[in-house]
């Protein structure tokens, strides 16, 4: 009995040592990623939408290519070619546990009428969206992504008729993740379409995200002649949806589940915990138990091989 206990003790100590080494190696890998990222400031000409972005105080701009890399390769989301860039808070990177950012894209399908803004029952709309999300999970599973569940409003939708901006926020749960994800959406309406600005964060960061929104809204501007009030009913295209359709996600039907974004910036820490848990199952569990390899372990192996 004592011998068995001693062997278990040695194995536990060995695993602890390996886990510490893996954590140091992973941290070095992610530090390398952070150092490789190039941020911008000042006035940024956006590639679509006849508009520009004045990077607000407290933020830094990440271009389209790098933003796509973060969302897809680091945070594990499906690829979306429509991303124009992102605003990352100063003092935060894209791989840490506290990382979050505003993702910017453009939808140029016409002028969105706001006649129905005050007539929408958002509680009923939420129920419809929850059902739509369940249906979309079949497509997510086929694509190899975890199911997503719409828990509810993190911030109930409202429309600012003066600024012509629609706000709403969803609380989402991806698979068996311990912490829920926040998707805080802004739609800045223009003459020919709208800028989509979506904060991807954890629910614990909701207060921080909301506090930054006034400055974010000031940073986006349409060129002269392309603002919402410049609409010309005789020549301009009217979108097929209204305010309610934007919140429900009908405008994003063509991309389906890709419109829901997960925050996987915490993968380095949660992945290591998962690796340790898997090792314990493998060493101390039943013979038919199999240890699986987290995604970041594969990234580390690829990096190590390329450097050699």
* Total strand segments: 12
Number of helices: 7
Order of helices and strands: HEEEHEEEHEEEEHEEHHH
Instruction: Report the principal-axis shape.
Output: globular
User: In CATH, what is the class of the largest domain?
Assistant: Alpha Beta
Which percent bin holds the helix content? 25-40%
Uncertain ranges: 251-259, 265-308
Organism: Flavobacterium geliluteum
Transmembrane segments: 255-277
Protein name: DUF2167 domain-containing protein
InterPro entries: DUF2167_membr
Description:
The protein is 38% helix and 25% strand. With 308 residues, it is α+β, with helices and mostly antiparallel strands. The chain has 2 domains: 36-265, Protein Transport Mog1p, Chain A, CATH 3.40.1000; 267-308, no CATH class. It has a 7-stranded antiparallel sheet with strand order 3-4-5-10-9-8-7, with helices on both faces. Strand 8 (165-174) and strand 9 form a beta hairpin. It is globular. The model is unreliable at 251-259 and 265-308 (pLDDT under 50). Keywords: Membrane, Signal, Transmembrane, Transmembrane helix. Residues 1-20 form the signal peptide.
């Amino acid at each position: 009995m004592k011998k068995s206990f001693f062997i278990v003790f040695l194995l536990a100590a060995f695993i602890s040592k390996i886990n510490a080494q893996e954590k140091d190696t992973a941290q070095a890998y992610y530090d390398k990623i952070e150092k490789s990222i190039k941020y911008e400031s000042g006035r940024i000409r956006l590639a679509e939408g006849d508009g520009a972005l004045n990077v607000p105080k407290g933020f830094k701009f990440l271009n389209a290519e790098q933003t796509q890399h973060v969302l897809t390769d680091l945070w594990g989301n499906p690829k979306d070619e429509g991303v124009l860039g992102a605003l990352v808070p100063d003092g935060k990177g894209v791989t840490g546990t506290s990382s979050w950012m505003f993702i910017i894209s453009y939808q140029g399908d016409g002028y969105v009428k706001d006649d129905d803004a005050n007539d929408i029952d958002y509680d009923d709309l939420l129920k419809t969206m929850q059902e739509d999300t369940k249906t979309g999970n079949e497509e997510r599973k086929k694509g190899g992504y975890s199911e997503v569940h719409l828990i509810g409003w993190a911030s109930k939708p409202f429309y600012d008729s003066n600024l012509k901006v629609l706000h709403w926020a969803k609380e989402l749960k991806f698979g068996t993740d311990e912490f829920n994800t926040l998707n805080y959406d802004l739609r800045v309406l223009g003459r020919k379409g709208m800028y989509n600005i979506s904060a991807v964060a954890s629910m614990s960061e909701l207060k921080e995200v909301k506090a930054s929104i006034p400055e974010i809204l000031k940073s986006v501007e349409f060129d002269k002649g392309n603002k919402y009030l410049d609409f010309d009913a005789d020549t301009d295209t009217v979108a097929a949806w209204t305010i309610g359709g934007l919140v429900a996600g009908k405008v994003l039907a063509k991309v389906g589940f890709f419109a829901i974004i997960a925050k996987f910036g915490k993968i380095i820490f949660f992945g290591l915990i998962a690796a340790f848990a898997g090792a314990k199952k493998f060493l101390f569990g039943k013979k038919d138990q199999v240890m699986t390899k987290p995604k970041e372990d594969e990234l580390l192996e690829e990096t190590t091989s390329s450097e050699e």
